[in-house]
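Each field is set out underneath.
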Amino acid sequence: MPKDRPELPPVEELLTAAVTAVGGVERPGQVKMAQAVRDAVESEEHLAVQAGTGTGKSLAYLVPAIRHAAESKKAVVVSTATIALQRQLVDRDLPRLADALEGLLPHRPEFAILKGRRNYLCRHKTAAGMPEDEDDQLFDPREVSATGRMVQRIQDWADETETGDRDEIVPGVSDQAWRQFSVTARECLGAQRCPSGADCFAELARERAGEADVVVTNHALLAIDAMEDFAVLPEHDVVVVDEAHELADRVTSVVTGELSEATVSLAVRRAGRLVEQGVADRLQEAGEDLRALLGAAPPGRVDTLPQSLGLTLSLVRDAAFACITALGPRNKDKDDPENAGLRKAAFTVLDDVHDTAQRMLDAFGPAAGGTGTGLSADDSDDPDSRASDSGSSGTRSSGTRSSGTRSSGTGAAASGGPTGRAGGDAEAEEIHRAEVVWLEEGRGRVPPTLRVAPLSVGGMLRDKLFGDRTVVLTSATLALGGTFDSLARQWGLRPGEWTGLDVGSPFDHPRRGILYVATHLPQPGRDGLPEAYVDEIAELIEAAGGRTLGLFSSMRAAKAATEALRERLDVPLLCQGDDATGQLVKQFAGDPATCLFGTLSLWQGVDVPGPSLTLVIIDRIPFPRPDDPLASARQRHVAAKGGNGFMAVAATHAALLLAQGAGRLLRSMDDRGVVAVLDPRLATARYSGFLLNSLPPYWRTTDPGKVREALRRLTADL
């Protein structure tokens, strides 16, 4: 150890002190994980750790992380997928840990939470230094509209807040209202140029983070920090990614681009104040063309570029470029903060429109074209299409934001000319395809939207996140099919670059829980919830005396089951959407007789220990929808490269959700119960072994009589 580094107690001693201070019990898996994290940090080797519920994994990674920060005098970044875990770390785990370790380390451990700039109140914008767009203008507080009331609440809160953190506002406010008071990182003038820079909430949060030993953030900001040319997070050499099973999806969301009439109209409104009317009108007309085209096209994946779409995207791109050029140099108004704010806001949205249009054209390759009139692929529901994460980099450069230069673009992709590809050429193109484009249908006030996303973020993560720092990835659900390989491929990690460790769970799964697969039921179809499934659910709930969490693959199925069973059963039955999800979960946990039905957010977001939850029902294996544009494109891409796309994408997706859903059952050492999967394919299909090996090791049965009898005995004992 270098002489300038202090001699610190070993991780084991610090962990014992921490567990004792919080009134917990040290568990073998927790000690094993803490030692593995320490070893990974010291050897600078990436580590993936599966730690089941009840292990105490937060302390297992926080203790060695804090020790490393004290020793190296560099912050450790902890990234989470959910706000709930961020709050648990910042409000509960880290304060207690700081108290416990204060006397054992050179100084009391410091921690901070850091979010994206959009999450903090902008003092300059609040002071009306940056007027908003007419469709998102500040509403008169006297209006009786919900948005007007929210705006008034934000204004009142703005005079009192010390952090400017949006999450302080309870109940929360809509994005539409919050946009009036916040800016993105690209819209920000910068602390040096902004009149409110000295008191900027986002900058103050960064300052606090810069002084902390542990900085808690989210996967999105972690991805932005890794990919941008400028630092968002403090200097660090170790990252802990908790809820790591969601990392690839969260990063994909960050790098997904979208284009619609609404985004173009926003660019027109912002640029219209600053450029000649004729230049802005050109972009407005291109946006109207885009609206007409997307409004008439069917939603779905866009596999080849229709001439009409290629031409329209080129018009939008070139019109945005003309506006950017007309705005002049980017630092033109550096001494005039008000105009600088207007110009920065205009540049931001124009850059986005230009770059996204160009990126969509690039997604079809240099010889893109096609003469089709629709935007949907004929093979989007092909049952034989196979594919998944390829591990290659999935994003393309679409212009240098800081330089202010833009290419207006030419070529076949821009003109939408025919390509006339032969079958072999099409297969070769698929192998080299990097991104997928799809059209999402409009809903309510949201217009039809064209989106573009990478087929894989593995290459990006490998180069940008894992390249120059040590990363520890952890979750209760990482070993799918019994190995870490599926998620390692999504992260872009290659064999030999990382170590995997499953520290198990303190729960005795075979003695505490039953996995029941209803093999006597028919396979689920596309025509809604079969009547036999409704009968099975009713019999299971009656045997359990309520106490049931129903996890459904679609909201339609959840609502159908709720409607069919409310009159049939004597127990209270709640359905997601009846009230705020948090309130429903609270009501469910407070009354053991109550049942709660819902969909995706309940698969991963419910933590109800005790007698209120003894039965988890899963209606079907949660494969991605056949028409899911991104999942189907990833399956096809893997198949083109010679892999098994179904297993790499669809089965991996299903295994992850099944494991998360089944994990809702045992949340404390005293819990007992049943996980009932109504889909017989979990026991009979060729891929069932992969799925079953992804689940906790419950005792398994296919006998409905045994399960109902077990539930009755359990209910009688409670």
Summary: The first helix runs from residue 11 to 21. The first strand starts at residue 46 and ends at 50. Residues 26 and 626 are 45 Å apart (CA to CA).
